[in-house]
Amino acid sequence: DRLKRGLQKTKEVMRTDVRDLFKAGEILDDQKIEEFEARLIKTDMGVAPASEICEEIRKKHGGRTVVLDDIEETVKEKLRSLLEGEGDTKWDIADPLSPLKKNPNGLTVILVAGVNGVGKTTSIAKLANLLLKQNKTVVLAAGDTFRAAAVEQLTMWANRLGCEIVTRPDGTDPASVAYSGCESALESGADYLIIDTAGRLQTHANLMEELEKIKRVISKKVPEAPHESLLVLDATTGQNGVSQAEHFTKAIECSGLILAKLDGTARGGVTVAIRQKMGIPVKYVGVGEQIDDLELFNSQGFVDALFE
Ligand code: GDP
């Protein structure tokens, strides 16, 4: 399926390396385990998780005859626990909307942030598509008014998807677009409003001010909004994405991550690094350029896709 296809490159490192490095029937020595650790680090999962996985291998299989399936099982188990955190990545796989907090009293507002080029616009379109497919009505607010192209691109997606979009001329205060988005969505009785935000790499103070202002004005219209604040990260940037996440989460309380472009990289291990460092769950992963290429993230499914 899509997730498996998307993770192909990371899988080539993980599964293939287990099979390539460890030889059935051999006695497992430390040198092999260290070699494996180095390869795990190349997936950008971070040094600490890689060493935890290898410690587990050493403990369970070191000095014994290699049984490949058993080693693989140890790696999978450890990966799952590293990805799970507080258990919040165990959503209902059958319900693609299950990671999203819903407003029980009406309009659910989703704020989306991320640096230019990470795949933010595409991810918003994919998320809207997911909602539309569940028969939800969706309004988009083109709050990235700093970049004309962002508004155009989002408008193109809205037209293609057949959903309402609220736009204002370039340079308009993003908070005012967000406010108009709320008004329109409430007026039309929509189920979801997705607000795009500026994607320039601002200074910490500016970013915080802008996002805080958006929050302030939308909560006047919809108390408790935003219900979700999602940050989009580009998986191909590996550890760099972790720094971006740190920058954003200082400015805004993120409730989840969308990890885009996972298909373009062998550094899928970054998912582990993010989970470990940020404590924020990855809710969706982007696994291609097409509108349907957004998958619910689930640690079990993720680990299985890496090894099947
Ligand atoms: P933005 O500047 O953050 O809004 O980024 P865009 O949404 O315009 O995406 C930048 C580029 O990345 C575009 O060419 C997208 O098609 C591509 N892209 C976005 N998400 C994915 C993904 O999950 N996989 C792949 N392969 N490409 C993606």
Can you walk through the features of this model?
It contains twelve helices and eight strands. The protein is of the alpha/beta class. β7 and β8 form a beta hairpin. Guanosine-5'-diphosphate binds next to α6.
Order of helices and strands: HHHHHEHEHEHEHEHEHEEH
Number of contiguous helices: 12
Percent range for β-strand residues: 5-15%
Q: Numbering strands along the chain, what is their spatial order in the largest sheet?
A: 3-2-4-1-5-6-7-8
Percent range of helical residues: 40-55%
Ligand identities: guanosine-5'-diphosphate
Intertermini distance = 11 Å
Radius of gyration over all CA atoms, rounded: 21 Å
Described by strand count, sense and barrel closure, the largest sheet is: 8 strands, mixed
Q: SS-based structural class?
A: alpha/beta
Low-pLDDT stretches are none
Categorize the overall geometry: elongated
Tally of strands = 8
Average pLDDT level = 90
Subunit structure: Part of the signal recognition particle protein translocation system, which is composed of SRP and FtsY.
Function: Involved in targeting and insertion of nascent membrane proteins into the cytoplasmic membrane. Acts as a receptor for the complex formed by the signal recognition particle (SRP) and the ribosome-nascent chain (RNC).
Membrane topology: Peripheral membrane protein
Keywords: Cell membrane, Cytoplasm, GTP-binding, Hydrolase, Membrane, Nucleotide-binding, Receptor
